[in-house]
Amino acid sequence: MFKRIIFPLFLLFPLAIFSQTIQLDSCQKKAREHYPLLKRYDLIAKTAEYTLSNANKAYLPQFSILAKATYQSDVTAIPEALGQVLSQLSGQPFSLPALSKDQYQAVVEVDQLVWDGGMVNAQKEAVKASSEAEKQKLEVDLYALKERVNNLYFGIMLIKEQLKLNRILQDELANNYNRMEAYLKNGVVQSSDLDAVKVEQINAMQSETDLRSTLKSYCQMLSIFTGMKVDENTALEKPLLPVFEGNLENRRPELSLLDAQKNLLESQRKTILAGNLPKIGLFVQGGYGRPGLNFFDNRFTPFYIAGVRLSWNFGGLYTQKNDLAKIDINRKEVETQKETFLFNNSLLTTQQQNEIDKLTETMKNDDAIIALRSNIKKAAESKLENGVIVVSDLLREINAENLARQTRSLHEIQLYMAAYQLKNTINN
After folding, report:
1. Residue 22 bridge partners (DSSP)
2. Does a structural domain hold residue 364?
3. pLDDT of res. 2
4. Using a CB cutoff of 8 Å and minimum separation of 24, what contacts does 368-373 make?
5. pLDDT at 19
6. Which residues of 9-41 are buried (b: 16+ CB within 10 A; e: fewer)?
7. Beta bridge partners of 106
8. Is residue 203 situated within a structural domain?
9. Which domain holds residue 45?
10. Residue 377 contacts by C-beta under 8 Å, 6 or more apart in sequence?
């Protein structure tokens, strides 16, 4: 007895798994998280972090070591005539030790940047602006996933609704087939009428097969995008229909990308200007060699030099005007792209809003059409029973009612798709 109880419960367990319900928002979120391109966020952030770290190190003391050994064909010496004059003036013989033609020197230098014209800050701003532009470009690519997920989600909803209507149609045809069999026994219809109904049943079953094949394909694609298990048994929750009121503010990531590109161009302009300014730094040199700072001392001696260094490269000034002009052209190009995007987006928004209005008005008449078609079908069934019409007339009315129901479902899904397309167009 115990085993008989446990076994049915075990069979019911998979049903709980298969009856899971998913939402559109969760599908969009999972698709974003599952998309391989998302990994670039960390790569962009790490690259910017390392580059900024390198830029900050420009203000750290810079060490350099120089060592050399040379042999000279000649060395510095006092002219003989000058030596005689100095001997006469001093009253003593004057002489200097001869310098060696082989000379040696090792120098350690420490440089400390004091002012660079704002070059390091400009480079840091350029790194941040470039990183932000890369992130916004990535955001644009990821945003495109929403529309693809929406199309799959609503496509599955539409197919499921069509399958539901197909089942209703098959049940309707089965009932009429059974009724025709009774009519055949009473001589109201002929056997060919039964064949006509059978043909419609086969057509309905073929449509079901096609719909299930398409549904399987859509579910597989949504599973790949989201990383979730989605199959025919997965229930899709119908999302709330977006309501748009007043002025529709555009929040598309493309606009953020264009703004980021403008900021990048501005940082490049600052970098050009800062690169053509003078640089001031402190330096200390410590060395050991023969000779040292005293050229007339032929011994190995230590020495040091400390001071302030000013450097100014004027070469960049020759091209600064043209470089800034190119930056300005690129900025105007970005502004033109923004204007073009907003213009096209506005046209698309108007078109989609009109589509929503049209479908809303259309759906108001769908229920009335279904009710009328249902009455006409019932009247046709009564007429057939009384021998007023033939079976083909009844089948035509059955198909007309089914088509009206399908049209209503199609219009409803189209309304949802149009609303979410508009939502996606303006990112509102």
Report:
1. 236
2. yes
3. 35
4. 369/404, 369/407, 369/408, 370/401, 370/404, 370/405, 370/408, 373/397, 373/400, 373/401, 373/404
5. 53
6. eeeeeeeeeeeeebebeebbebbbeebeeeebe
7. 67, 288
8. yes
9. 23-53+109-277+312-426
10. 394, 397, 398, 400, 401
- Could you give phi then psi for residue 97, rounded to 5 degrees? -65, 145
Do 415 and 178 form a contact (C-beta atoms < 8 A)? no
Greatest Cα-to-Cα distance within the chain, rounded to the nearest angstrom: 160
Amino acid identity at 153: Y
Token code pair at residue 170: 């098959």
Selected residue with higher pLDDT from 96 and 250 = 250
The tens digit of pLDDT for each residue in 313-330 reads 888 888 999 999 999 999
pLDDT value of position 78: 67
Band of residue 67 on the pLDDT scale cut at 50, 70, 90: very high
The CATH code of the domain that includes 419 is: 1.20.1600.10
21: DSSP letter: E
The overall pTM is greater than 0.90: no
Mean pLDDT of 8-24: 56
Q: Which helix (H) or strand (E) holds 286?
A: strand 279-290
* Residue 68 resides in a domain: no
| Domain presence at residue 394 | yes
Question: In the chain, count of helices (H) and strands (E)?
Answer: 9, 6
- Would you call the peptide bond into 291 cis, given omega within 30 degrees of 0 as the criterion? yes
Q: What is the predicted pLDDT for the residue at 82?
A: 65
At which residue do the structure tokens 């108001």 appear? 364
C-alpha torsion angle, residues 309, 314, 319, 320 (rounded to 10): 60
> To which residue do tokens 């005007």 refer?
321
Question: Above 50 in pLDDT, residue 214?
Answer: yes
Question: What tens digit of pLDDT does each residue of 47-63 get?
Answer: 888 888 888 888 889 99
Contact criterion met (CB below 8 Å) for 142 and 37? yes
Tens of pLDDT, residue by residue over 129-149, are: 999 999 999 999 989 888 899
Tell me how many domains the chain contains. 1
